[in-house]
Amino acid sequence: MVKSLNELLSLAKEREKKVLSVAVAQDKEVLLSVIEAVNLGMVKAILVGDEKEIRDIAKKENFNLDSIKIIDEKDKTKAAKIAVSLVSEGEADFIMKGMLGTADLLRAVLNKEAGLRYKKVLSHVMIYDVEAYHKLLFLTDGGMVPYPEITEKIAIVENAVELAHSLEIDEPKVAPICAVEVVNPSMQATIDAAALTQMNKRGQIKGCIIDGPLALDNAISKEAAKHKGIKSKVAGEADILLVPNIESGNFLGKSMTYLAKGENAGIILGAKCPIVLVSRADTYKSKLYSIALGALSCNK
């Protein structure tokens, strides 16, 4: 069971080496993370983008690109299409976003010709390593599905659970996060949380333990749960935080990064391959962790 992002790197180095395709790779932080991932033996890499810009950055930063293949394509839309086609054609196992918009990359991924559409719902999972918590926290979905309904929440949970399994977390504990820890008919998130919990108990959602609704404090603090009289296998031990909407996921994730100084990794799941996706503002270390996460989630 992986309990830290450093352990994530170690596990990725032990597994079979995967091939990473980078769309529009002319970015210093992206190149630094990819080169380190290659040097650590986690992946092989193919860079798609403006070769002159890539080599100019490498020269300025003293990066060694000798073992990395580069496909020259200056047009960003075409570069994204090529990066995706490498996966479609079996030359690469997963994709990383470089210097282009998320929507532009997803447009290439979801193009019918690419053949990478796998599930109906693509969802974003961030993993946080926060000093105040005793293990990794998965957060979903703060980046893809704005206002998920119950059917979408089921898919979002299943994507996150599958990812947790790839990190050797055999039975992740899922907390549907709400403003309160009781079912309130006027608060749809609490009704959805109760439905997910019941579906899990009846074996409709497998491979995890779901209990909710839970407020954030009960999900991550046994003391808070005890104070409120909550008895639950998930309370104080949550692995996966399922948020009710994209705003709450965005706020909570950025709070863990900027206020709690947590390190993070992020990917999109639901396509036929993982898509490494982190904010352009994130550090190269975050991007490195995300590459490791993508490589591990290829082993389904």
Automatic annotation (TrEMBL):
Gene3D superfamilies associated with the record: Isopropylmalate Dehydrogenase
Domain Phosphate acetyl/butaryl transferase: 78-294
Keyword Transferase attributed: yes
UniProt KW NADP keyword: no
Entry-linked SUPFAM superfamilies: Isocitrate/Isopropylmalate dehydrogenase-like
Pfam families: PTA_PTB
Alphabetically ordered keywords of this record: Acyltransferase, Transferase
Recorded family membership: Belongs to the phosphate acetyltransferase and butyryltransferase family.
Protein name per Swiss-Prot or TrEMBL: Phosphate butyryltransferase
Organism: Clostridium oceanicum
Lineage: Bacteria, Bacillati, Bacillota, Clostridia, Eubacteriales
